[in-house]
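Mods, move this if it's the wrong board.
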Amino acid sequence: MSLAIWERIKQHKVVQWALAYAAVGFALLQGLEVVAHSLGWPAVALRIATLVLLLGWPLVVVLAWYHGHKGQQRFSRVEISLLSVLVLAAGGVLWFFGSSPTRNSSPSAFAPPPHSIAVMPFVNMSGDAKDEYFSDGLSEELLHALTRINELHVAARTSSFSFKGTAIDIPTVARRLNVRTVLEGSVRKAGDRVRITTQLIDAVSGYHLWSQTFDRELDDILALQTEIAPIDALPIAPPRDLPAELIPYIWPSRYCEADRFEAFVERKFGTYQGGAKVMAMADWIFRQLDYCPGSSDSTTTAADTFVSRQGVCRDYAHLLATFARAAGIPARLVSAYAWRLDPPDFHALVEVWLGGAWQLIDPSRLAPLEGVVRVCVGRDATDIAFMTSFGIAEMKAQSVQVTRLDD
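Not the wrong board. Structure tokens:
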């Protein structure tokens, strides 16, 4: 019996059909991967294509079994039955993988618009109720600044201010307002000085995307309110208005081949304005890359990371700096010690020049920004390496101590 089956397999060239299908399928996947990377398709598109090709393999084997010899054209009842079962099974598998995330998720699955924000009323920590007008006015000024960004969905003032004075946590607020990010802050006034702390929080992951502290004199309240804004609302300075010392940070460098990404960045992020463009770049990198320790080495550039779609914090930072420079935005790498990581470790971040100042961003979203200590800055890893060795070296020991100084 087994010999008869093997003779039929050889006679109908079942193995040749299967190998030819595998070769064509592999070539097709390679082409799809190049197209997907160029057009920025999500990774799920390649997974679906791979699954479809795998499910098509049994169909090819069945067709070869019945039609691989002398091109037999008629379909028998048995063949039709087998093909029907395989098609139904393939459809069931596709349905299962396509619907399983929905069925396995909770009824309250949170999927807000990606570029949406709510500005919460800033907390008055001065102890004087008369200063409420300042903290509320600051919140309103920021909200109005954000509404001028066409690509950003901003929750209405009455909706976000309805949570004033409540003890509701950020994830709950974000769910009720259906926003991806929440901007909150506090105001502490002492005499003629004021300290304002702002932070932008990703409501899905719970991590801080951006934070900033301002210490100013209260000689011009309106100017201070206008100055403070999240990255999304900050303007991009044209190259002609940049200080001379910033020009090197818009040039390509050893690990940041910005000139190779100008067309991609324009096509993918050209519709965004101001800081919203940079945040869209950081969001794209976070979603497209997989954090894989050991996946890169000292030769890995931003272009390599873009193709492999994996890396570590340094690779995330190189790619964001490359995208920003390709858009004409000065960007530099920051080496820091992230003492709030678990465990604490050295970390690479990015600073971009927006609104006339350097703004710190962590595209990997691993390190809370309020828990990093800057060590140095530079064009890329060439300038910010913690240690440069000439020849063979062996690390014997490492010790880092961080002490937080609070006012």
